[in-house]
Structure formats: structure tokens, C-alpha cells
Amino acid sequence: xxxxxxxxxxxxxxxxxxxxxxxxxxxxxxxxxxxxxxxxxxxxxxxxxxxxxxxxxxxxxxxxxxxxxxxxxxxxxxxxxxxxxxxxxxxxxxxxxxxxxxxxxxxxxxxxxxxxxxxxxxxxxxxxxxxxxxxxxxxxxxxxxxxxxxxxxxxxxxxxxxxxxxxxxxxxxxxxxxxxxxxxxxxxxxxxxxxxxxxxxxxxxxxxxxxxxxxxxxxxxxxxxxxxxxxxxxxxxxxxxxxxxxxxxxxxxxxxxxxxxxxxxxxxxxxxxxxxxxxxxxxxxxxx
Length: 288
Prior knowledge:
Alpha-Beta Plaits, Rossmann fold, seven-stranded mixed sheet, 2 domains, alpha/beta, 32% helix
């Protein structure tokens, strides 16, 4: 393929789509690949994967993983030289999850007076609230707030920063986010300023960065990433949490839930709740 940006679209039965997504997640060369999976046609049982590779090698790897399913229809389409992601998402409707209302500037006039309004514009960072993983995290956090408050919150793989910003806007004195992607950290800090939220975001790989460790132990850790890094970070997340602290984990498919859960149970966590949205799972765990 050429250096022109492309979108890879795959359609087929749910089982094949989920298996293809697992294949992408399991490939270490595709760890940073951006894709979504959702039900496109409930009546016909058709699921869809949209992938947005950032290089020719990544595009070839994703396409190969999708074709290897043996039953998905895979199409590669060129993308115009424009801010296509923001254009595609700019018309998304707002998201309401409990007290939280996540919206873009085009929905400014629709913000309910009683909601915790979070303005998050569509763009290059992940986390507008529409994806089942982000929505699941917001739902889990909203329900926890009915009985608890969390003074210190860490958001691992913060993307737009929406989860740490939500924490800061609901009383957390310390809300820290970390991401391995520099542009996401910049966008998250801009979103914090836009939402008048006392949240800070740092460019770091893992949880051992000094700017992350200085506020530990945390009362709650969000980690909305992917199944393989969730497993790899299980011990680090345990260390970052105080005893009795809560971890809200997402970015994993339902089919990956057992693997992630086993990693955390072996570290002394217990499952408090599971939330399913489409093919995605959110786990709420408590450190013993």
C-alpha cells in the first residue's frame, strides 16, 4: 500500500469479529492499533470492525489479522487528507451516564442543569464517552459515587482525560492521568482546562514515573486500555492502590474477561461488578 491514510472495515458474524479483535490484541506488533467493534445490523447479526492504521506496516498487519478470520468481508478504503476523525465524530450525540453528560461544542445548548457536564471534543485521542469501554467506566464510577468518594484517582492510558476529569469534577482532590502517547497527554491537559478540572496528565510509560508515584497510593485506578497491558500491569496497579482501593478496568472484550480477571484475582483482588456494553466488558475490582 502507499503512505495515504486508510480505513480498514471488516463485517461478519459476531463470533468472527470478536475472534479477529482478539487476534489484533494478541499481536505485539499491533499493540497500538486503533480500532472499534460494534453491532452494525442486529436483525442480520452483522458486526463491524473499523481500524485506522497509522503506518503501512500496521495496515498490513491489521488487514492480515482480519482476513485470517476466514469469514469476514474486509475492505480497505483511502481517507481524504483532512482531519477526518474530528469530522466523522463532530456530529456524535451527547452521552449520558448517570450524573455525567459528555458532549461536544455542537451540543452546548443541550446540557441538563443537573448533570456533571464534560465537554470533550472528538479528535485524535480516545475517549469521547461513546465507546462501550468509556461508557462502562463512567457508569461504574457514577454508581460507586453513590456510596463513596475517592480523594486520589489515577487514570492509566488517559486518552482525552475524560475519566480523570470526571473524578476531579466530582470531588477528587488529586486526579492524575498518564499516557504513552504525547499528543493524548496534551489534549487531556487542554480538556482539563476547558472543563475547569483540577486534573493533571503526564507523558509516561507505566506506573513507575516519579510524577505518578508521588501521589500514590490511590483510592481508585482507572485503566481503560487493552487486555494484554491490563494483564501486564496487574502488579503495578495493585502497588498503586491502597488496601481496599478500587480498580475499574476496561478496554477488553467479553471473551478476554476471564484472562484479565484471573491476573487480578491472583494478585489479591476480588470482583465487585461486571458491566457489559456490546462486545466490551468493564470490571470493577477491589484490592484486598
